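I am writing to request your help with a piece of structural work I have in hand. Here, with my thanks, is the record as I have it:
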Amino acid sequence: MKFVIRFAFFCVAAAIAFGAARADGLREAVLRDAALDAGLIPSEETYSAQPDTLVAVGKRLFESRLLSLDNDTACASCHLDQFGSADGLANAIGTEGEGIGNARVLNGGDIVPRNALPFWGRGGVGFNVFFWDGKVDGSSDVLVSQFGDEAPSLDPLVVAVHLPPAEIGEMVIDRNDTQKLQAEEVETANRLYELLADRIRADEKLGPDLALARSISVDDLRFIDIAEAIASFIRFNFRVKNTTFHDFVFGTGKLSTEELKGGLLFYGSGGCAGCHNGPYFSDLKFHAIPFPQVGFGRNGFGVDYGRFNVTLDEADRYKFRTPPLYNVLKTSPYSHSGSIVDLRDAIRVHLDPLFYVDPQSMSPNDRTDFYERLRIWSSSPLNGVVINEDDLDAIVKFLDVLSYESSLQVEIVD
């Protein structure tokens, strides 16, 4: 009798285990299909091969302060490995900044009114819209940028590399004796680029190495050669690599129960994949999420009109490009203004914007601005989605499987 009972118990347990395994298998299949339907492709299909010599000198240019007008700021000042290729600050600190991370705030540098974007995937196949407001946009037959029809390149990433060295407060110091180089016009920018190219030509290592990589003489080096080298480094170093999720979708990799749950929420009822889709987990389009605005904003007085500043189209007011999600756990704080420190809260604000604001603590102007952003958001598919604390934890667990390391360690070396 005892044997019969034990055997019956074993059969029930086996049936339960079989049912659970079958359910997990179904959930895994659903998640794989959802990722493929949303445009995920093998990581190597996003990669654009780059010459080793150009990548090497591009890295050194990326790390060099010679490309800022006052020799005080490098690309790497705001894009370091320890912050997931960002800077760990709400708003970036550009010219006159000293140190890294919070030290740049404490030492009193010039504030750049938006959060520094990380570089993961930039310039990969199909990644052709750059900056929070898409001010460099190669997604159509016509390359759109601040250069108008005088763009220095047809490559949108190369054009994007041209902008920070010409931005006031970012790499152009705001001082009386530099005013002649502060007019953000193409002619002024070209004069600045020639000055910066002179520095590289005169550098006893960077000049010859860049010339060798470009197969030209040092005397023939121009800023376009510098920009193409930096773009080559960005494409190589921050290219999409195989993640745990790629292994799961395209190989034999496994996800934990919590990661699997988070992935199903991400592609399902959470609505995340509505915008965070494709090979870069971004549709590279523009949407309005009413994140709290910190800092003075691109338009001043705590206001940032986002995409509107580029297009002057009222329909684009308060919209920002969807940020990709690779290594997102490393790139806090979040949003265009860096107003959210915790990733769980950043996810929550997409669905429940009122959770993170206190209208009574806001000025009448700030409330009016917030209500307008809330009005635009209310027509989005995210409106009405309800999510609980366990769901938030699961989505964060899933996002962690999109992590990987860059190939080369970025430093500030001069």
About this structure: The first strand starts at residue 129 and ends at 130.
